[in-house]
Design brief:
This protein is an alpha/beta fold and 174 residues long. It contains 6 helices and 7 strands, in the order αββαβαβαβαββα. It is 37% helix and 19% strand.
């Protein structure tokens, strides 16, 4: 009986731990909220303009985030693999839009360079945890990612960007 109770408590703890890290603000199937922030060059980027006829992985991260930085080499490989693929209803294919929760521009730019984040779309309001983008998307931890289809609809939300592979491959031309 004690073993059953311990097993039940362990399973309950795991359930609560996972629920703690689930984004509840953004729902799969809803239109992706607009983001409009500057890139490292000071140019304003709009998510809807980038998204037009393109599948997007919206990746929230920060230069000071150890797990984010450790995941970046795999994210670069992921981008190289999928950016050249053909997708249904996405004439412009696939890209990543990185949203940084940095407070200072210099470390953000250095991390992009050092980690080789070669995709052209990086944005931030340099608000740190008070970032407007994080508030809009309900981001309470990083890394965190959202997959947005070519129609601007959120089709997945993930604790790690690489977790979107199944959903992304459903959108590919076979």
């Amino acid at each position: 009986m004690k073993k059953i109770i311990l097993l039940f408590v362990a399973l309950l703890s795991l359930t609560f731990a996972n629920a703690q890290y689930e984004n509840t603000k953004i729902e799969v199937g809803q239109p992706a909220p607009e983001l409009e922030f500057q890139n490292p060059k000071g140019e304003t980027l709009k998510l809807t303009e980038i998204n037009s006829k393109r599948v997007i992985l919206l990746d929230f991260w920060a230069s000071w985030c150890g797990p984010c930085r450790m995941a970046n080499p795999d994210l670069v490989k992921f981008y190289k693999k999928y950016s050249a693929k053909k997708f249904k209803k996405a004439k412009k294919g696939f890209t990543i839009v990185s949203v940084s929760l940095d407070k200072n521009k210099e470390p953000w730019m250095q991390a992009i360079e050092k980690d080789g984040l070669i995709w052209p779309f990086h944005m931030s309001d340099l608000g740190g945890w008070q970032s407007k983008a994080a508030a809009i998307y309900g981001v309470m931890f990083v890394p965190q990612a959202f997959l947005i289809d070519a129609n601007g609809v959120v089709i997945g939300k993930y604790n790690r960007a690489e977790d979107c592979v199944k959903d992304l491959e459903k959108l590919m031309n076979k």
